[in-house]
Amino acid sequence: MNRFLTQRIGFWLLGLFTLIVVIPILLVIGAIFLKGLAAINWEFLTAMPRNGMKAGGIWPAIVGTLILTLGTAIVAIPVGVGGAIYLSEYARDSWVTRAIRLAIINLAGIPSVVYGLFGLGMFVLFLRLGTSIVAGSLTLAIMTLPVIISASEEALRAVPVEFRTVNASLGGTRWQGIRQIVLPQALPGIITGIMLGLLRAAGETAPILFTVAAFYLPRLPQSPFDQTMALPYHLFVISTQVPGMPAEIQYGTALVLLTLVLSMNLAATIIRSYFRRRRQW
Does the residue 49 lie in any domain? Predict the structure, then answer.
């Protein structure tokens, strides 16, 4: 009887802790939605900013955020998944690989402003890329690599070893087994890691502050070496640096950024669920 009572109390406590975490998040989302909905219209989403960003729209910031996220994905996904494949399938268990994994874990905890200063020193100044989309994308890619590598490696390691054994017994090479068997089975976890990294990149302000973001740029970028506006930095600017900014524009920008991030999360969830249903274990 005491065991069942303890279990029931544990369930109630878990539910209580869940509510403590979820309710403030829902209140914040609800407040942003209610206060920002008034600003959402076609002009706000598709027009260029004008009058010191107090009028017009946020189209350059939306496009800039999408471009930076795409650039981050182009760099981070092949390197991150490739590094995870090497650590999981090829690298021997030695002090070197253990040190690499420890370094990856530590890099995941570094504040984003440090990555921004690294990007400023390495890409903007040393490589002379200037404050550009290339520099910003490379900085964000480096910031997201630890998350992608760690999640992808765990997903690959979770695939039962019997899959690899059967592949070897049928005469398949290690790469054939990875490409045709292990990777398809690990895709749900890999997609989760990729989206966690990209969602973080899409919402970061500090790294792009030093490497790519423009304070006010009422035009779209023309090349990868141009500056661009971005929603996180634009939201920071209009909330702290522009006096007299209407509150509905601030909340409307926050609502657009939140909707963009949630849409990416929803798309990743649908893709992950599709591959999870096809998984054979």
Answer: no
**Eight-state DSSP code of residue 241:** T
Token pair 């990743």 is found at 268
Prediction pTM value: 0.89
Q: Is residue 12 part of a domain?
A: no
Whether residue 39 is contained in a domain is answered as no
Say if CB 73 and CB 198 are below 8 A apart: yes
> Torsion over CA of 29, 30, 32 and 37, rounded to 10 degrees?
130
Distance CA 7, CA 20 (A): 20
| Residue 265 domain boundaries | 58-278
- Which DSSP category does 48 fall into? P
42 part of a folded domain: no
* pLDDT tens for each residue of 100-133: 888 998 888 889 999 999 999 999 999 999 999 9
Locate the DSSP E strands across 127-237: none
The CATH number of the domain holding residue 66 is 1.10.3720.10
Structure tokens that stand for 77 in this block: 């996904």
Q: What is the dihedral of CA 162, 166, 172, 178, to 10 degrees?
A: -30
